Structure formats: structure tokens, C-alpha cells
Amino acid sequence: MKSFIIAFFVAVLFILALIFGARNEQIVTISYFVAQGEFRLPVVLACVFLAGFLLSWIFAMYHIAGLKLALRRNRKQLALAEAKIDQTMVIEEPSKKQITQHSNNEVDA
Questions:
Q1: What confidence tens digit (pLDDT) does each residue in 35-68 have?
Q2: Any bridge partners for residue 38, and if so which?
């Protein structure tokens, strides 16, 4: 649900940018390193907004994937640690019983 709300919000911003650009039919000159082009303002606004959104989305997905991998690694380490604790508890229980039986035998004598 959260991702749907975010996607809807981004779509609304994109549509608002297009509406704003549609009201401004000016020609904009964009200079590249070796060339120059003339474009309508709505096209430039839409392309810049979309490029910024995609770049931000790529960086966010990279960061989220790293966090998910770290979470998976930590969960595996936790499961191994819990298994190790369970094993030590099972090993220690019979030795405690032996100690209590041994102390009971000394009291009886």
C-alpha cells in the first residue's frame, strides 16, 4: 500500500509538471557539449523530471537491496547463534542432573 501511495504521488507530480509545461509553449535552447538543440518547454520539463526520478529510484533500489542483503545475513547469523545456544543447553542439562544425583548420593551416605 505504501508503494502505491508513493507511485500515485509521483504520478500526480509528473502530471502537474506536464500541465505547467503545456501552458508554456516557449522554445528553449539547450546546449550540449558538441551540439545545440531547441525544444519546447513541456518536453524539457518532462524529460528532466523523469531523469531525476529514475536516477533517484535507481540509487534508492541499490540502497534497499543492500539493506535487505544485510538483514538476510544477520538473520542467518542469529539462527546459527540460537542453534548453538540450544545445543549447549541440551549438553549442559544432563551434566546438571548428574551433579544433583551425585550430591544426593553424598547426603544419603
A1: 899 988 878 877 888 899 899 989 999 999 999 9
A2: 29
DSSP classification of residue 29: E
Q: Is pTM beyond 0.90 here? A: no
**Which residues lie below 8 Å from residue 37, measured CB to CB, with a gap of 6+?**
29, 30
Other Cβ atoms closer than 10 A to 44: 16
Q: What is the DSSP track for the chain?
A: -HHHHHHHHHHHHHHHHHHHHHT---EEEEE-SS-EEEEEHHHHHHHHHHHHHHHHHHHHHHHHHHHHHHHHHHHHHHHHHHHHHHHHHHHHHHHHHHHHHHHHHHHH-
End-to-end Cα spacing for the chain:
72
**Mapping DSSP to helix (H, G, I), strand (E, B) and coil, where does residue 61 land?**
helix
